Amino acid sequence: MSQPTIEARDLLRRFPLIDGHNDLPWVLRERGEIDLARPVAGTHTDLPRLRAGGVGAQFWSVFVPASIGGDAAVTTVLEQIDRARRMIAAYPQALGLALTAADVERIFASGRVASLLGAEGGHAIASSLGVLRMLYALGVRYMTLTHNANVGWADSATDQKAAGGLTDFGRDVVREMQRLGMLVDLSHVSPDTMHAALDAAAAPVIFSHSSARALCDNPRNVPDEVLARLPGNGGVSMVTFVPAFVSQECSDWQAGLKAEATRRGLDPRDFDQLDRLTPEWEATHLKPRATLAQVADHIDHVRQVAGVEHVGLGGDFDGTTDVTVGLEDVSTYPALFAELLGRGWTEADCAALAGGNLLRVLRAAESFAARGALDGQEAGTN
After folding, report:
1. What are phi and psi of 317, to 5 degrees?
2. Do 97 and 106 form a contact (C-beta atoms < 8 A)?
3. Are the beta carbons of 203 and 185 closer than 8 angstroms?
4. DSSP tag of 379
């Protein structure tokens, strides 16, 4: 084991690594109950690999596909919250439900993985602030405003322009989230929506799993002009490991696949339809690979544009069938930190990236909500 790897493992034992996005709860929905205490084939995540990766805290995504709308989306997100909470409760020696920054630190200190919940896709609230409030009451601590399709009040990065960012109700959603203490997640949204949310935000926002658009021109990534606004907002952009968001070659390959899906009358935003087409596409189009070093390049870029206080990690493990070479599952985080240490990152820099920045954002969200409660702010009525 190299010296940087030894240093990386030691660092992750002392400072909590908080990953912004993991889709294991959806895998559990599709595959049924899985014993996570043992290595689980066909996934990126289980308890042994979380320990090996030095993961100190994880946002478990309570994802709802954009194809599910209306009351069915509300039902589905409630089922996913239930599934994630039962998963956490099933392994009390390894996992602990975290609702606050203090919970994260306490659970990490006990040697367990602090487990937070993040909702992916604002369609899950069915345009109801009451549903939003109930998600917070059930433990959801961030919501991604959109997934792969517009929600009526916010534009997605991978759909046609409609709202032009946020509607008046969309701004109400942002304000209500921050009044509650729920983080506004801008992954998956269009640049117009990013700017509109930052304009409306009075507390820090996050990007739970997005990389830098300057290095990979994919609509899911964050443009430099948005990254440059993070110091003023206090937010964090959590770099993801999805190959199509890391490597331009991988992004171009995926764009070709989606174009072929469209030509055949399929929905390129539908993961299942794309997965069925992928083997045929791979047979005639050599698939490129993204690398750990390219992920480190994205981290360096976000640091350069926004500052070391505004970068984090959101692997999106189990949310993609494709993986980056060197970052194949949750056990590989020490290798990434070894790469950064080799590039001259200090221990303090790495601690901020790992989780220090996200803990600051959580505390800021909690403080903002507490100030609002003291000021007697009224919630919306929708």
Report:
1. -65, 145
2. no
3. no
4. P
Let me know the angle formed at the C-alpha of 224 by 223 and 225, rounded to the nearest 5 degrees. Answer: 95
251-288 pLDDT, tens digit each: 999 999 999 999 999 988 887 888 889 999 999 999 99
Whether 377 is in a domain gets the answer no
Contact predicate 11/340, CB 8 Å: no
CA 361/CA 351 separation, integer angstroms:
14
> Does residue 220 belong to any structural domain of this protein?
yes
Cα–Cα distance measured from residue 77 to residue 62, given in angstroms and rounded to the nearest whole number? 6
Domain membership flag for residue 272: no
Residue 281, in any domain of the structure: no
- Amino acid in position 240: T
Q: Write out the residue range of the structural domain in which residue 177 sits.
A: 3-247+289-370
Tell me how far apart the alpha carbons of residues 295 and 98 are, in angstroms, rounded to a whole number: 28
* Cα maximum dimension of the chain: 62
User: What CATH number is given to the structural domain containing 148?
Assistant: 3.20.20.140
pTM of the model: 0.96
* Nearest Cα residue to 298 out of 187, 186, 206, 215: 215
Percent of the chain with pLDDT over 90: 92
Handedness of CA 192, 359, 56, 353 (dihedral sign): positive
Counted domains in the chain? 1
Here the tokens at position 194 are: 């990013």
State the catalytic residues: 21, 23, 120, 147, 188, 209, 316
How far apart, in Å, are the Cα atoms of 290 and each of 285, 287, 300, 328? 16, 10, 16, 11
Question: Residue 159 and residue 143: Cα distance in Å, rounded?
Answer: 19
